[in-house]
Amino acid sequence: MVKLDLSKLSGFLPEDYLTSRQERLAKAADMLASHTGPGGDFTGWVCLPRDYDKEEFARIQAAARKIQKQSQVLVVIGIGGSYLGARAVIELLLSNNYNLKKKDTPDIFFAGNGLSTDALLELIDLIGDRDFSVNVISKSGTTTEPAVSFRIFKELLEKKYGKEGAKERIYATTDKARGALKGLADTEGYEEFVVPDDVGGRFSVLTAVGLLPIAVSGIDIDALMAGARQAMEELGQGGLDNPAWQYAAARHGLYQKGKAIEVLAGYEPRFRFFAEWWKQLYGESEGKDGKGLFPASVEFTADLHSMGQYIQDGERVMFETVVSFAPAGEYKIPNDPANVDGLNFLSGQPLSFVAEQAMRGTILAHVDGGVPNVLLELPQISEKSVGYLIYFFEYVCGLSGHLLEVNPFNQPGVEAYKKNMFALLGKPGYEDLRAELLAKL
Ligand code: PA5
């Protein structure tokens, strides 16, 4: 399903960049398959497309139908891995303008992924007097941003529908046994979905975390899982002709050659949030112990007129990974008898032809400018191709983390700001740190 073109790496990597890593790749693949190695407890995602909980999957589909009937708006509350995947898939498959489209599924808004008062007030205003439901998602059940947001939306729901009515509109996705959200959901009697113990937030899009909001949008989650399963079966084969092995080896080789930044480039505006998901996946998985590629993203051709300058001509510290989907629709460029703009050499050509040449020309220009390019070509955007791509990136991420010799499945760095925030907010138990921080401010 994924066609990987690594031809534009020649000259940037030694000829043996793949074979010299064969043994380490085989070991990495084995650690993923056997759930061993650093972070092995969090590799449940590896077999998820085959081994997912079928009973819960059916409940997700039923809950999605219920939400579609009961509400015109779904508010999805979560941060990081608890919202990026759902938003990425909904936007990529249905458009970044999903909420603006005429449709018979609810508008979907994402909340609790920041602490902006303006954003909260705007969202309350956008919901207006429409019927709404809430899917609150937090694996730990204790993350401040979604917890505060949920407290607010729970109150709004209870004011509008009463406690019993609100209960029918709240869906909690959290740990099966632990955390404040689990306790609250049990006490209040919300419908609950589980974030599996062995799947970390950024690898959770194919669990209830991503699947419930995705199903509410009308996307066929069976087909999404089928695409991921195809990837699992193909990429799990291993070997030097495996595109995941090739890409992981290339990324590692480029990193060791001083290319410290990987820029993910897409040509579809609806790909923008998928790139956000990808940045979290790689940033949190690789960026630790003083190591890791810095994941960045651009949207072409728009960003060729902004970041394009730096990529072409700035510090030579990056490589690009371009993701290209086959176009779905077609629009032909009209002829202008007066040819005032001098564009008649394009008359009758589909716009996708122009886009294709822009992409090819950009790749050649950037490679000439010293930026190695990887090209990932996929069929049209569909549930299957997106499911495949999700798994492809997850699997390469697992391999890459092991090549880098970090634990790809923890995120110790995320804790530092939380501790300081709690201390400054006066949370009980943080008194000493609070005094220390206040002295520094
Ligand atoms: O990938 C991760 O583990 C993180 O980004 C988490 O998803 C994020 O911090 C939210 O955590 P939680 O779901 O526990 O609220």
Question: Secondary-structure map with pairings?
Answer:
Elements: E1 3-5, H1 22-34, H2 48-51, H3 54-70, E2 73-77, H4 84-94, E3 107-111, H5 117-127, E4 132-138, H6 144-167, E5 170-174, H7 180-188, E6 191-194, H8 208-216, H9 221-235, H10 243-256, E7 261-266, H11 272-286, E8 294-299, H12 307-313, E9 318-325, H13 351-368, E10 373-378, H14 383-404, H15 415-425, H16 431-440
Parallel strand pairs: 2-3, 2-4, 4-5, 5-6, 7-8, 7-9, 9-10
Antiparallel strand pairs: 1-10
Helix pairs in contact: 1-14, 3-8, 4-8, 4-11, 9-14, 10-14, 11-14, 15-16
The chain binds 5-phosphoarabinonic acid.
The site of 5-phosphoarabinonic acid (PA5) has 15 residues, from loops.
Question: How would you explain this protein's 3D organization?
Answer:
The protein is 48% helix and 12% strand. It is of the alpha/beta class and 441 residues long. The chain has two domains: 3-34 and 225-404, Rossmann fold, CATH 3.40.50.10490; 45-219, Rossmann fold (3-Layer(aba) Sandwich), CATH 3.40.50. Helix 13 (351-368) links the parallel strand 9 (318-325) and strand 10 (373-378). Helix 1 packs across helix 14, helix 4 runs antiparallel to helix 11 and helix 15 (415-425) packs across helix 16. The structure holds 5-phosphoarabinonic acid. 5-phosphoarabinonic acid binds next to loops.
